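G., before I forget:
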Amino acid sequence: MPLETTTTKQSEMTINVGPQHPATHGVLRLVLDLNGETVVKCTPHVGYLHRGIEKLGENKTYTSALPLSDRLDYISNMTNNVAYCLAVERLFGIEAPERAKYIRTIMSEMTRLSGHIIWIATHALDIGAMTVYLYSFRERERLLDLFEMTCGARLTLSYARIGGVRCDISKQFVEMLRAFTDEFPRRVKEYETLIDQNRIWLQRTKGIGVISAEDAINWGLTGPTLRGSGPSYDVRKDVPYDAYGDIQFDVPVGKAGDVYDRYRCRMEEMLQSNRIIRQCLDKLPDGPILAADAPDLVLPFDAPKKKTFEMSLSHASIAFSEERDFFPAGEIYSAIEAPKGELGFYIISDGNTRPYRMRVRSPSFIHVSAMPKLSEGHLVADVIANIGTIDVVLGECDR
Amino acid sequence: MEQLEIASHIQAAFPDEVKGINEFRGQVSMTVKKGRIKDIMSRLWAAPEFYFDFLEDLCGADYLGRKEPRFEVVYTLHSMKHRHKIRIKAEVSESDCTIASVTSIWAGANWHERECYDLFGITFIGHPDHRRILMPEDWEGHPLRKDYPMQSDLGDREWPGFKAVVETAKKNKRYEVR
């Protein structure tokens, strides 16, 4: 009997990537409609990590809502803390002292380094260059040690405070950080020698996930994901907060708007962050680390002994200065440059001790929404490169 | 351009729509009626002197029992070219909980509006993909509304579905349930 021959015809197929997939950086789920190996339609599904941080924030006092911000982008916590504290400071009209501003800037840039290190490690791992992971985590370990040295935590720091920072940095910390910054540019070179000229890397990244400058702005992309396409929008330059106004640094931009240019942007950004840290360490002023009028769980250390009233809350008693109208009614949108992009807090206050509405504008959420734009018409393998290049953290995306 | 200047320009162009201009800590927010929100947004986007090409943020706010109309949709706009910002707040009432979508102007509004629908129950007319986003598709209620409880009303009592789950597990006998 002759074998029956079946004619294979090119047909569409739907496959599901995630939520449990090593290359989706968390619990991102993508439904891909394929024609052969080309992605016809890409539908991202998010929300697997939704913890209702905005709702929780509305039910906590300003001080006790701070640790929630750690749980947004859980690999770059310090920038989240700073974003939250800065928003509340702007709302209350508090100004952090100079030293606190510099410490925050140092910590933010260290966080940016550790965030970008995670990004290069996982992004390269996804595309097939495994070695970078092993090298880059060595540096991340040193950064985490420095965090631990300052505030005792490695991951969920909660180090920034409304009106300053929690505790001062030690001499030893400054020495160790300086040694790190001396060495770090060499390490970045090391990563670059591993992948920069690698033919496979170039083929996997050049001309992939292209988005024009107009489209990128229209889609609301921010951070290195936007700057890879050309616009030099950086909140640190645009609305300088903390010590960024006194510091010299460049904002690297790309041209082509593809995965490779975004990779170059982030690599350059690491060197710039290193430069910022060095400048901050040189300029680090002396003085208090917490504003005298900052609300906190304890009274600020050198606050004038004013008449205060105690307010008993469910867990702790918070002391407020009576002479100051701490909780003005109003609303504020305050943004900072997080490693992933623009992280904004929109807080509506009704004059109460709790925020009436706390909105988090997270960059990852917007970046995932642009996944169809980046992926449709490309091959399945490029979807993975695109997930890496938008540098998504689902904790921040789902909130 | 200064924020107040932009606001007064818009007020001159849409005198019936603008309900109020308010400044707090250097940030200007303009409250408008929702009827011609798309016209206002198109104007802000297209006019060369404004050129708000970047929708920074879009979110909802619920003023239950404090204000009428109950909801607000808040747009934070930024111009990459002129580096200025403005905040537009469109009022949405509970009885007619709809507003025009701005996805045709800013593609990035797509997920913001889905989120706003998901968490506040405001329907965006003309949205290309109007589904829930953060909550499961069969979820009841809209969590960020002020009348949505923070904790369940069960208290210490057992969740009524728990017994059924245990029974099913026992029936399948794959897991030992004590």
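The mean pLDDT of chain B is 85. The helical segments of chain B are 3-13, 37-46, 109-120, 161-172.

More on Monday.
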